[in-house]
Amino acid sequence: MKISTRGRYAIRVMVNLAMHSKDNFIPLKEIADEEEISFKYIENIMTLLAKNNLVIGKNGKNGGYKLSKNAKDYTIGEILSVTENELAIVSCLDCKEVCSRQDHCKVKPMWKKLNNMIIDYFNSVSLLSLLSNNQEFSYGEGI
Question: What is the Cα–Cα distance from 44 to 128, expressed in whole angstroms?
Fold first, then answer.
């Protein structure tokens, strides 16, 4: 499993919006500058996040973006599920075709369990928990 740039940037953007959660809408240029992400690239990310109701966008003067809910109510898994096409650590877990070895594969259960642990971990880390600096995360303690 490799998290794409889009997924990593989306998490950074969501953390940025969470830091400004008491503010009104944050202009896209301000977010792009603070996160050092190109304006064009961040536009695509924000469109995707807005389309999936993770953020609210507003056009015009005093426009920009803000979170659609409280930072504690987001998980990193939720954000990654919007930005990543797949979160499988091996291709056979996300394969659309039936594998010829599926009925007798001895290693697939191991990969599936590891993949589920990773997804469960991402789902245990709240956006709010990322706001504190130097926070160490261990499995099951991300909220």
Answer: 24
